[in-house]
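Predict both folds.
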Amino acid sequence: MRTRAVGVAAVVAVSALGLFGSSYHLFQLTLVVIYAIALLGLNLLTGYGGQISLGHGAFYGIGAYTLAVLVHRTSVPYWLAIPAAGALCGVVGFLFGLPAVRLGGLHLALATFALGVVFPQVLKSRGLEALTGGVQGIALEKIEAPLHLPLSPDQWIYCVCLATAVALFAVAHNLMRGHTGRAIVAIRDNAVAASSMGVDTAMYKSLTFGLSAFYTGVAGALGALAVQFVGPDSFAVFVSISFLVGVVVGGLASISGAIYGALFIQFVPDLADSVSKAAPSAVYGVVLVLSIYLMPRGVAGSLRSIVTQPKEGP
């Protein structure tokens, strides 16, 4: 109960900080919220489902490009393009998962890694250049707040991202507490035992992949709105690796871990760059190693252990 109250208070505090902070800090917090949605999707697959993915940057890119094409090319409203991007990624993820999840383990990781490597090159192909803009990408305009609300475009997109995140986090929380969530975790812990209890392991794995891709696609669509640009080089394989780093640092099989991981991948690179202009990657690597060494269960797991630690008697 205490942990939930602290979480609610943190969300309220961050919301206030975002609305009344500077434009730069508002943009940073917007990206944190977007990354949290993407990390939550990956955590459903990797943390709860036990399936390693090194290609979720591709689903993030598919979501971003879907929104950009719909809004820029066909003038579809952004509030329709966001769920459309998520739905398309969900279908692609499910179809990709049907054969891929049968690989399992490192073979699945390599298959998803290949997806992440190939995706930017596909965007640059001449056959799709008329749609995707090729290496030039697609520039988007800022969205305005509706109904003459006294909010700037940056504040409005922040509110849209935050409201979307709250809804998706609530859905994930309820999902993992229900029958579907228990089946996903059972497959992760022991697929043979789960199958003997009547769980369709192949179908649940594919559904988990599709759900994970849906979350990441929605995050990608929101990211396109926030950055106002999509380009092939924005979705290199390093994006997928960063997502996996965020999931591990934040805490596997933890809903709140997605938030801590998003904070890590947004602010630690900037911190590393401010510490050393010559070798920011080295600083980033040191911080990452220390985080994993000091908090092997992730930030969420460490905080949970502190909160639930029994008090010593007199």
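Second protein follows, with its predicted structure tokens after the sequence.
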Amino acid sequence: MRRAALIALFVICHSLFVVAPIHAQERGPTPATPEQIRAAIDKLADLDYATRMAAGRTLRRAPSAQVAPALLQAVSDHADGFVRFKALILLTGFNDPRIVDAMEAAMVSPNDRLREVAYAYFEQNPRPALAARMLAALDKEEGEFVRPALVRALAAMPKDPKVTEVLIRDAGRGLDFFRSTVIEAIGDYKIAAAIPRLNEIAKIDGPLQDDAATALGKIGDKGALATLAAMQQSAPKETQPAIAAAICLLGTNCSAHIGYLEKTLTFADTYPGYQDLLRGAAAGLGHIARQGNEDALRILFDVGIPSQDPVRAPVTLAIGLVALRNTPLLLKTLQARPDQAGAIGMVAEAFDMLEEDLEEERFFVYVRQAYWAAADGSPTRKLCEQLINKLDF
């Protein structure tokens, strides 16, 4: 699919502009007329993959002074709700002071996608002054993908007692899906006040037990070792990878626990029927890698590149989340791999699986900045160029 799309895009560009080969595309900001910018915005929702990807490229590479006002207008006025959504995401790649106002307006939009983007933006750019509005929104927000983004935006706030109280409350009530997102956010943002609630959840067999164990590991309080050690004795085998990852995250016997997770992955590859263990081991290595552990990410690539499903999918997903949440580690790892093409292919597969549009846009921005910061002809620039081409941005 991607190869066909790239070929189609090349044919279109070559026939219109007779440009150099597609691999030599990064030339800095590319001026565009107002008509070209409007046309590109209109094509952001085109059903044809090559067309909408080409539209995104045009807008990303246009000078901010030209494209940011057009994107702001599209977010506000465009008739197509999906175009408004994509325009708001693309806007985050430009350093325009008006973006904050656009995001605040999107928080109350009837369009679920716009609200999701707004909260995801404020997770990355916390604004304590919005805490009261977000807490009020949490009482009525029911969007399946909006509510988790809102929870994470709240968790990212500098420690606010009211916010912490609500998150601890919601970790213990409601649907398991929403509770899981609260527990994950508590762990990611190291909300230590939630440890007693996490300890309670960790003692109960069920789908949230591994979430609670992982969150305890992420928070990093060594006092959680007692809870995790007890879980090792009593929790079902499907939860053991999450416990091992959590103990590693606490800094205890990390190499041994990473070794266990690696063996679990290879065991599940050899003996079908252990999907729960497989998913747990891949996710556990992913959590460890996201905290900066190079060995964990190396193992995911070592196992994943030659694999087929059912192993490949959970490993690919874990790699994708590392790419989004620890991009510097991903680039460092990719640059060192002898099988770089296969590793980049797994990142591309992961982005096809994920629906993290704003985080993917942040990844694109980071990679393009790294491209321009690197010396011409350097390994880093060559790697970034490969990512730009493979991921179609």
